[in-house]
Amino acid sequence: MESTENILSRIEFLRKKMTDVALKKGFTDNESVYISQELDRLLNLYEKVKQETTSTKS
């Protein structure tokens, strides 16, 4: 299982990349959409890992 720190680092990287790509190519460009979808996937993973970590500590 990935650590929350690793996931957060990847999230921040993709946020910056998505902003750069969207400003250069547009928000509906295929690359912008792909990065956005990957970012959503990571955000969901982060929430899942965080919940699992919290529930195992209880």
Automatic annotation (TrEMBL):
Example of a GO MF term: protein dimerization activity
Pfam family, one: SpoOE-like
Superkingdom of this protein's organism: Bacteria
Protein's GO biological process: regulation of sporulation
InterPro entries linked to this entry: HLH_DNA-bd_sf (IPR036638), Spo0E-like (IPR018540), Spo0E-like_sf (IPR037208)
Protein name, UniProt field: Aspartyl-phosphate phosphatase Spo0E family protein
Species the sequence originates in: Oceanobacillus profundus
